[in-house]
Amino acid sequence: MATIAVLPGDGIGPEVTREAVKVLRTAATRFHLALEFQEAPVGGTAYEGAGTPLPDQTLAVCRGADAILFGAVGGPGWDGLPRKLRPEQGILALRKAFDLFANLRPAKAFAALAEGSTLKREVIEGVDLLVVRELTGGLYFGEPKGIEQVPEGERGVDTLIYTTPEIERIAMVAFEAARRRRRRLTSVDKANVLASSELWRRVVTRVGAAFPEVSLDHMYVDNAAMQLVRRPKSFDVIVAENTFGDILSDEAAMLTGSIGLLPSASLGRDVGLYEPIHGSAPDIAGRDEANPIAAILSAAMLLEYSLKAGEAATAIEAAVTHVLDQGFRTLDIQQPGTQTVGTRRMGDLVAEAVLAGKT
After folding, report:
1. Which residues pair with 2 in a beta bridge?
2. Per-10-residue mean pLDDT for the chain, 359 residues long?
3. DSSP H or E run through 233
4. Most buried of 41, 76, 238, 334 (most Cβ within 10 A)?
5. Catalytic site residue 96?
C-alpha cells in the first residue's frame, strides 16, 4: 500500500487536485495499484484553521507518506500577513523539511495545441524537454543576504554559493533523467564570468564520466535562453543552478502555449512532492474553469518517480493526449472548432481514457 499525502491548498488548488486524485484512482484500478490518500491543509487555508501555513499535523501526514500531491497556495486575502505566515511559506517549509533539492519540469508540446504557442508550428511541434533545476542553493539561500545602510544610501546583497556535494547530487539526478530519455544533457552556467559556474561546470563534467552513454554539452545561460525559443527541439534534458533554472523553466513552460498544462516534481532523498506549476488563480476559483491537466500530469510524475509505476504514468500521459486530440479544451486552451469543458468534465474525460486504455 502506497500512501499519498494530498495537500489541495488554496484557490483552484482543491479543484485541480480533486481531478488528479480521480485519475490516480482510475489508474490504480486499471493497473492494480494499492493507493491510500490522506488529505491535509496547507497555505492560506491552513493559516485560517491553525494559524500557520504548514501545521504540524500536515507535516506529520507528509512524513508518513510515500509522496506528496500538492495543489497551489496563495491569494490576495493573505498578502498583508507577516512574511513567515504567508501561504507560500508552506511550500518553502516543505522543501526544507524534505530537502527537496531537485525540481523537474517537463515541457512537452502537444500536437493538438501547437497553434496555441507563440512560436511557429514547425518550431514547436515535437518539443519534449525536461528542465532539472537545483532548488535549495544559490542566490536564493546564500548568506550574507539583505539590505543595509551605506553612506551612499542603501546596498542590497545576495550571495551565490555552491559546494561540490550540492552540484554532484543535482548532476546525478540530471544524468539519470537523461539516461532514461534521449541521452542528451545540456548543463547551463555562466562559467566565463562566475566562479560558482566555473565550479559547476567542472563538477558536472566529472560526474558525467560515470555516464558515458549520455552526451554532455555546456551552454552559457544567455545562449540557452536564446536557443530555447530558436531551436527548442535540440534540447533533451537541461540542468541548471537555482536562479538560471527558475528563469529557463518558466521560459520553457510558455513553449507549450499554456501554463495550465505543465507539471513538476521536487525530489529529495525520501519523499517527492508533485505540483502543477500554475498558481492558485483565485479569480477563477470555484467556477469550474481551471485546467486540471497540469495537476493530472503531476500525478503521472508521482507514479513514475515515487511509486515506480511507469506503465500507469505512461497511460495517464497517453490519455491526456487522446482527450486533447479529440478536441476537448478548457477555457485557457480553447480554440476555434473545439469543445469547451469545465474542470470536472476534463478530469472525467481523462479518467475514462485511462480506464479504456486510449493511446
Report:
1. 35
2. 97 98 98 98 97 97 97 95 93 93 94 83 90 95 92 95 98 96 98 98 98 98 96 97 95 81 92 94 96 97 96 97 96 92 98 92
3. none
4. 238
5. no
